[in-house]
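Re: that backbone. Tokens:
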């Protein structure tokens, strides 16, 4: 017989809206991860990690960011690293996706409420086919991570014993596919030791792009041979992703070509490979083969723009998303051409989509500007470094110019909040704090005002 207290708690939980459950779910996972990382067994020092650093690490892992205040490869023990890897997997796929996995394994029925939460978590417009999509997400993720782990193990075995190479292969496959950016190489080096290695670069870039385009697009591509067509969403995501990567490669290649701290010391093929990799990784991955602090300011600022745009909806990445950026560009083009509608691939976008894109962009700008202003007063660093770190946290990228390990307590709290908001989505947080209102029953008279 259930106790009155547990019954009351269940009723309160049932009254929560899906966005509120998502916020509480992610917060609970972060808290559990914090407690585990604080255990002496989780680090190599044998003492308890302080609460703030454990909270920051758990938030960064669950929000698949990759910003770290202590070096993952040298500070944490294997137990602590496995905790971080599990947090990355749960955070990347979403805790509701993982809960659905257990329900499917145990052959439990997925309730209507669970489907509503999954719809919110996957940013879907309807519940139709949501469980089928979750099954595909799990299968695609495990297959891609497994294949990448094998390839990375094959490469790492030349540098370390087989057992360690296998462990490194699995950890980095999970980290890179989920766009987390955590690495085990130590001394905050990330993948700089493999700057000229084609296999590591290509495998990691494939993982980053696969995790960043979104599971909806991935499912669309897998079914293309049967359908022989792609959805509007997939066309926009793939075309904008390709455009951003190619543009980023060209810009970084030009700006860094003669920089002795980055591309200057590499052969031509290495320059091209490194520029391409560094264009891919700001799509919220966080791994780097070049010294980020050594980049020219023009390159650093351009990476801030790439990080702000981020990955695609329904993916493991953050940012305002490629579709939002495409809609904003489409609105500008439509206005300049004197058109009322935004048309993409011969489809007209609904006004509600445009308003949502504008809202997401402005809320993101407001958050980044506000946090950067506060950090400018609490941290004694130049503004570009602070802006870079803040944008990296919001877009759950994990690239750093070296500020994160030196953050003050207030700075760590602000970056934690920024990572949390960036992973869940600003609209989801807004709906969790104040649920959506119903449509008004009347309209106000139209007014006119001068713009521009």
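Recovered sequence:
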């Amino acid at each position: 017989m259930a106790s009155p207290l547990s019954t009351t708690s269940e009723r309160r939980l049932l009254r929560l809206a899906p966005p509120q459950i998502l916020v509480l779910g992610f917060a609970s996972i972060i808290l559990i991860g914090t407690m585990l990382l604080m255990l002496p067994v989780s680090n190599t020092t044998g003492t308890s990690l302080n609460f703030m650093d454990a909270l920051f690490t758990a938030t960064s892992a669950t929000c698949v960011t990759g910003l770290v205040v202590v070096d993952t490869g040298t500070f944490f023990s294997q137990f602590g690293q496995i905790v971080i890897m599990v947090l990355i997997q749960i955070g990347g796929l979403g805790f509701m996706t993982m809960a659905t996995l257990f329900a499917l394994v145990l052959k439990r029925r997925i309730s209507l409420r669970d489907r509503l939460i999954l719809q919110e978590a996957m940013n879907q417009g309807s519940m139709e086919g949501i469980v089928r999509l979750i099954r595909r997400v799990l299968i695609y993720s495990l297959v891609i991570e497994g294949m990448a782990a094998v390839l990375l193990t094959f490469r790492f075995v030349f540098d370390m014993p087989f057992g360690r190479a296998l462990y490194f292969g699995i950890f980095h496959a999970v980290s890179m596919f989920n766009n987390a950016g955590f690495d085990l190489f130590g001394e905050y080096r990330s993948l700089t030791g493999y700057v000229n290695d084609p296999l590591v670069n290509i495998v990691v870039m494939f993982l980053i792009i696969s995790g960043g385009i979104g599971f909806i697009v991935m499912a669309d591509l897998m079914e293309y041979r049967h359908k022989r067509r792609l959805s509007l969403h997939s066309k926009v995501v793939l075309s904008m992703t390709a455009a951003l990567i190619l543009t980023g490669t060209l810009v970084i290649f030009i700006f860094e070509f003669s920089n002795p701290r980055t591309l200057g010391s590499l052969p031509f093929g290495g320059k091209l490979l490194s520029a391409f990799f560094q264009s891919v990784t700001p799509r919220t991955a966080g791994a780097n083969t070049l010294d980020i602090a050594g980049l020219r300011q023009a390159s650093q600022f351009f990476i801030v723009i790439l990080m702000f745009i981020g990955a695609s909806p329904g993916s493991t990445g953050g940012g305002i998303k490629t579709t939002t950026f495409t809609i904003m560009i489409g609105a500008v083009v439509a206005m300049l051409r004197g058109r009322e509608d935004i048309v993409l691939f011969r489809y007209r976008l609904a006004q509600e989509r445009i308003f949502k894109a504008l809202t997401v962009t402005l809320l993101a700008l407001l958050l980044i500007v506000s946090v950067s202003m506060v950090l400018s007063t609490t941290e004694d660093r130049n503004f570009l470094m602070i802006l870079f770190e803040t944008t990296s946290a919001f877009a759950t990228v994990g690239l750093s110019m070296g500020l994160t390990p030196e953050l003050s307590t207030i700075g760590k709290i602000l970056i934690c909040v920024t990572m949390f908001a960036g992973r869940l989505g600003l609209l989801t947080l807004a709906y969790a704090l104040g649920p959506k209102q119903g449509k008004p029953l009347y309209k106000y008279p139209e007014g006119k005002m001068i713009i521009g």
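The chain has 20 helices and two strands. Strands lie at 343-344, 347-348.
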